[in-house]
Amino acid sequence: MKEHMIDSNGVRIKVYEYSQTGEPLLFLHYTNGSSAIWRSIIPSFMGKYRVIAMDIRGHGKSDQPATGYQLETLAEDVLAVLDALEINKTYIVGSSLGCYIGTKFASMYPERVLSLVNSEGAMVNQFDGLLTETKEEYLDKYYSSPEQEFESREALIEFTKENWLPWNKERELVMKDYEPRKLENGKVTSITKRDTKRQIAEDLYDRRVEHLYENIQCSVLFLPAEKEGDLNKKLEFIKSVELKLKKSKTVIIPGTSHAMMFDNSKELIYEINNFFEDTDKIDRKKTF
Length: 288
Hints:
It comes from Chengkuizengella axinellae. The chain is an alpha/beta fold and 288 residues long.
């Protein structure tokens, strides 16, 4: 594996290049995660693809600037990574926030994306008719409480094991080399700051997600989670944006929740591989 620290307008983005042959495949993680969330499924793609995973700014080992978490900026980070690695076109697989970033990137730079997989993200306007509180009240409710502090890395890991359930080998892979953020009082906490997450949520709050799909030229695989809630609403949204797309597919993997790479990794791998193979067959037919 090759590791890179790539400059994106003064912000350093940590990138892991797991393999160097085949068409590029970029993995984008969810908020408060890192590229490590993909460790359980990446080996299944390394034989065929040039697999790359990046830590979104404010996460993992990437820089965490005080500002700059608008979706457009996060998409520009993807562009900086691809340009630095001399990648002209790539497949993109996203989870949650990673779906928003991948979709925005595919809209801004449609010629740079081969296919897009959205796993439980960018498939609904979350707050349509659901909230009685104001935007500020919503953000204060989730992002104003003090950050949770732990005496040591070991204490944080133990807390994670007890609360991130069901604890399994897929989740353990994420935490095996996790280095928490050190605080001035000597304690530690999670890497991504509360204010960073608030800025991301604030930007996404007002987004009309359907607009992200207006300029996309590639095929899109939608993977809404069966047990995450609002499934029917997501399916209605997907049906509406499919009209904007040249090709799309929707698959509901039974039993899935938000981060399906942990509890349904085999099924997730199968659906991604199957979609890419079908898309490749169609594209090859068009060239003859």
